[in-house]
Design a protein that fits this description.
The complex is a heterodimer. Chain A is 58% helix and 15% strand. Chain A is of the alpha+beta class. In chain A, helix 1 crosses helix 2 and helix 1 packs across helix 4. The two termini of chain A are 20 Å apart. The chains are: A alpha+beta, B mainly alpha. The interface between A and B is medium-sized, with 25 and 31 residues.
């Protein structure tokens, strides 16, 4: 059985989904790809917006999310983040 | 007269070296932890970094204090009394005590996994007020830090039992050594041997923490040099 994902991993998955979609994605795609409930996804999206990892773009056809440089830095440094937090019991 | 600790003359200088070393190790951990916080925005990394920064400042002040004591006393045994020293050194002593306890209290708050400014301020206020108001300063600082370390250790035992991570075990052992070191310092007014042993126990604690940090850095450098991106 696969191990339960922690917060850091879920954030990685969401940001990775956005990056793989050329840095811009609609909420329904995040919901579909990240394997989260609607409420959980909404909570994570708010957290990511608060941390400036993503930006919300409002258009005629609905909302979409854009990954920021800070979000890309998170993806690039994910291994270091996981190594440090797991070594010091912070995850 | 408040006696802070007894130290043998042969140990003078070594203690300052160790305190500077502890200050540098804790500063390096704080720096990395805050770097991780900047990258991830993770609350635990922020609190961990802040607590190690406070501890690092505390050790720096302790090293300065002992440097002063070394220049003032030159008998078979060095004893540092609060009343014997000037106002600046008194501020240094209080600074060392308050920064260390604030650091450990922040760490204990982090391990409780609660997000409440009220709870954090309550822990901090109680710890700092007890330190300021109690006459037996030497006893209270080491006793309070030992109690807080028990909570930290219990959280790390829980974390280790969940995932059996060897690196977490190393940090758990580091906190055990720190706990025994703090407990040992309670008796440092009885005999200078406890003062020396306390430093040795803390050296073991910070050596383990430093090894953990070096392993993280080495692993990162290895990944970079191999151009690998681990697929999580």
């Amino acid at each position: 059985m696969e191990k339960k994902r922690n917060r850091l991993r879920i954030i990685y998955d969401i940001l990775n989904v956005i990056r793989n979609r050329n840095g811009r994605i609609k909420p329904t795609h995040i919901l579909y790809k990240s394997n989260l409930s609607h409420q959980m996804m909404a909570d994570y999206i708010n957290e990511l917006k608060g941390k400036d990892f993503i930006k919300e773009i409002k258009a005629k056809h609905g909302r979409s999310y854009l990954i920021t440089q800070k979000g890309l830095n998170y993806l690039n440094q994910y291994n270091l983040i996981v190594d440090f937090t797991s070594s010091f019991g912070l995850s | 007269m408040v006696l802070l600790y007894l130290s043998p003359t042969w140990f003078a200088g070594y203690d300052i070296f160790l305190e500077v070393l502890f200050a540098l190790v804790t500063l390096a951990i704080a720096f990395y932890s805050l770097k991780i916080y900047k990258l991830s925005g993770q609350r635990e990394s922020k609190l961990f970094g802040i607590s190690f920064l406070l501890i690092s400042i505390s050790y720096s002040l302790w090293a300065i204090l002992n440097g002063f004591a070394l220049s003032q006393l030159n008998e078979n045994q060095c004893a540092l009394y609060l009343e014997d020293v000037g106002i600046l050194i008194n501020l240094g002593i209080y600074g060392h005590i308050l920064f260390f306890l604030s650091g450990i209290a922040t760490l204990a708050y982090m391990t409780l996994k609660i997000e409440s400014l009220k709870a954090y301020s309550l822990i901090l206020l109680l710890v700092l007020l007890a330190t300021i108001l109690v006459e037996e300063k030497q006893m209270i600082i080491y006793l309070l830090s030992s109690i807080l370390l028990i909570y930290i250790i219990s959280a790390y035992i829980e974390e280790y039992s969940k995932n059996k991570n060897k690196k977490v075990l190393m940090i758990l052992l580091a906190f055990f050594f720190l706990f025994f070191g703090r407990l040992d310092f309670i008796f440092s007014t009885i005999s200078y041997r406890f003062y020396v042993l306390g430093h040795v126990l803390e050296l073991a604690a910070y050596a383990l923490a430093l090894i953990s940090l070096i392993l993280v850095i080495k692993h990162q450098q290895k990944n970079k040099s191999m151009g690998l991106r681990r697929i999580p």
